[in-house]
């Protein structure tokens, strides 16, 4: 019968409607692909493609074959989904996704507490960016995701952990006690992340709420790159309260709290069966973040 490799071959031929184009997509020579297709057809006992037509067309038997291939693939996906849900419902195997910064500085510190609460827990940790994690949840690639923005997706559930204050990080060399507003630093270089990043989205919300926009902006790839530039007296940046403990920069910089709630640590999930675990995880995160000493 057909294995995954052979299904990939005939599916590619069907999509390309040409053995020549399919051979290019499969990185093989056209004669080799023709021989492989003939061998597949000989093994299953009927012709899949009508070679007399251009573009290549399915025979009646070929149409029936692909109907069942689709059904088998749907059944396989359903089986894997049920297996993952079964694992997750028993809290024995949980696939957690998070933003890069959280996976480096927060997740490692809460894993020991998770293992203490769930001794038999097996964890899978995967990094996602803020634009892809919702699709990962909906495709059942992960069970839950830890982020720092509220979500608006009717197909997903979420647990609010806590509001994560945002601070303006200013080098001590330019900070003045009476300069505590964004306007006071409007002439400085603002190091910001790309617009798709959660922190940048929150910063844009701040700019809109404060009716302010800096004159000089430079883009950095990570929060830590921005922090390094500020520590080198090159300008200012924004930082989450939850990150202050990790960056170890209080002796070099001052931090001005931005009034308002522009960021919230949130645990997002799809499967209602893991709601209890999501709530417990959120309480562990809150306990860890709340205990940190900032200044």
Automatic annotation (TrEMBL):
CDD domains: PBP2_LTTR_substrate. One of its GO terms (molecular function) is DNA-binding transcription factor activity. Residues 12-59 form the HTH lysR-type domain. Pfam families: HTH_1 (PF00126), LysR_substrate (PF03466). Gene3D superfamilies: 3.40.190.290, Winged helix-like DNA-binding domain superfamily/Winged helix DNA-binding domain (1.10.10.10). Keywords: DNA-binding, Transcription, Transcription regulation. GO terms for cellular component: cytosol. The keyword Mitochondrion does not apply. Belongs to the LysR transcriptional regulatory family. This is LysR substrate binding domain protein.
């Amino acid at each position: 019968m057909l294995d995954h490799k052979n299904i990939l071959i005939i599916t590619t031929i069907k999509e390309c409607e040409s053995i020549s184009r399919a051979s290019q997509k499969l990185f093989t020579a056209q004669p080799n692909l023709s021989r492989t297709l003939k061998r597949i057809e000989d093994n299953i006992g009927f012709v899949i493609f009508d070679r007399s037509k251009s573009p290549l067309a399915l025979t009646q038997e070929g149409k029936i074959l692909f109907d069942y291939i689709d059904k088998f693939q749907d059944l396989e996906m359903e089986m894997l989904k049920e297996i993952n849900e079964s694992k997750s419902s028993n809290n024995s195997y949980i696939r957690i996704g998070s933003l890069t910064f959280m996976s480096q500085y927060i997740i490692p510190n809460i894993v020991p507490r998770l293992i203490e609460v769930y001794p038999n827990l097996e964890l899978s940790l995967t990094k996602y960016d803020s634009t892809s994690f919702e699709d990962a949840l909906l495709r059942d690639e992960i069970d839950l995701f830890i982020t720092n923005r509220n979500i608006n997706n009717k197909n997903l559930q979420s647990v609010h952990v806590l509001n994560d204050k945002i601070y303006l990080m200013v080098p001590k060399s330019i900070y003045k006690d009476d300069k505590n507003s964004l306007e006071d630093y409007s002439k400085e270089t603002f190091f910001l992340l790309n617009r798709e990043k959660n922190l940048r989205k929150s910063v844009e919300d701040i700019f809109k709420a404060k009716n302010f926009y800096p004159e000089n902006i430079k883009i950095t790839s990570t929060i830590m790159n921005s922090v390094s530039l500020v520590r080198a007296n090159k300008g200012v940046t924004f930082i989450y309260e939850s990150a202050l403990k990790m960056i170890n920069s209080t002796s070099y910089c001052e931090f001005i709290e931005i009034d308002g709630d522009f960021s919230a640590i949130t645990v997002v999930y799809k499967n209602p069966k893991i709601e209890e675990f999501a709530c417990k995880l959120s309480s562990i995160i809150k306990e860890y973040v709340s205990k940190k000493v900032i200044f």
